[in-house]
Amino acid sequence: MTYTCIPESLPPEGFTVPVDAITSSFRLFGLLPGYSKNDLGCRLVLYPADWTIKILTERHYAYSAILQVDFVAESFWRREQVLLTVAEASTCYYIKPSSAAVTLDLLGFCHKRGLVLTPAAQQRVAAG
Fold first, then answer.
1. Which of 42, 45, 82, 116 would staple 68 via disulfide (CB 3.0–4.6 Å)?
2. What's the rounded Cα separation, in Å, for the pair 17 and 2?
3. Would you state the pLDDT for residue 33?
4. Separation of alpha carbons 50 and 32, rounded Å
5. Which residues of 76-98 are buried (b: 16+ CB within 10 A; e: fewer)?
6. pLDDT (0 to 100) of residue 89
């Protein structure tokens, strides 16, 4: 199966980004660390006005809720990941895209949306 790039204008029914796993870290009651992971039924869907992420349950966010987008390079122990930091309760989503092309496309999409990219993410977009 070939990958279709994220379209310039997203359809109203959304565009599902192919991901292999999503992990989140968060704070319960503002101080207790929480963690969840899904590599079987996870989903990231991009809509024109917002986006949805599913680990255990679906969460809906506006694009403005993303504080920054980071890129974690591949190493001996892990695959490359896109890190989305969300304003809500210090939540971070570690997304493992299904391929390097999907990673680059997702980072490019975030850049075109005007989201804040870290230097590592900017470097990955520039390297293409």
1. 116
2. 13
3. 77
4. 28
5. eeebbbbbbbbeeeebebbbbbe
6. 64
